[in-house]
Amino acid sequence: MEGKLLFTIAKRKAIFHVTSELTTSIIISCDEWEPGAIHSSHINGDILVGMNKNKELKVTRFSKEGRKLQVIQRDEEGINLYKSITYITENINGDICTSDYTAHSVVGVRRSGEHRFSYFGHQSQAGFHPYGICTDKLVHILVCNSYCS
What we know:
By secondary structure, the protein is mostly beta strands. The protein is built from no helices and 13 strands. The strands form four sheets. The chain has a four-stranded antiparallel sheet, with no helix packed on it. A four-stranded antiparallel sheet has the order 8-9-10-11, with no helix packed on it.
């Protein structure tokens, strides 16, 4: 969403934007779900939101106008993909990547919502606690590991 600041307030169950004129308004009401991690797609302006309801988690894709387009919650076998959604990003292929601090993993899904991979850190690492996450133009996934020994 060009020229707008987006933010979530979990307790108000809403996503807000602030325009260049410094006006604030709700663009998405999340019903009973608490929004957390948020990402605005540079591909098409869609808004990706990590959402939580009683420890049940999902990623929801909204259009830039606030219309719900997609919900990603479980893999092909019906197993929940997320234990927490710390940060969320999208690469140039439309794949969605999330850092899951609680599960000590990075979860990747295709644009279609199909589970692509879960990464639990390199075997040589003493601990993997993914936090910040982003992608670059070469489709690399960059992850900040907040583990300290």
